[in-house]
What does this fold into?
Amino acid sequence: MASSTDALSHLRCVLHKRIRPSTLLECGSDGAHIICEECYRRRLDPKAKACPECGDAFPKKPKRARLAENFIADLRMGWNCENTTHGCDFVVNDTDLCVGYVI
It folds into this structure.
């Protein structure tokens, strides 16, 4: 079973390695690595636009990672695992999120 830390790692921007509640984009690979829109526009090589994680090129119009965006929005509301009655102690708070991060 994956830990909560492993689960959150899939929501991190591949460039600044933080979870940021903003528009998120996916690379073109099967791994669908996430990059925040700000990093995509400002920090990637404009000619290559390749995923820093796997090297695959982003599509001309990158797909939004809406599932990740929605999950992060839920996390910002102080999400706790619904299985607490079964012993799960997974809790997410603002220290796990990159709120107000400036690139």
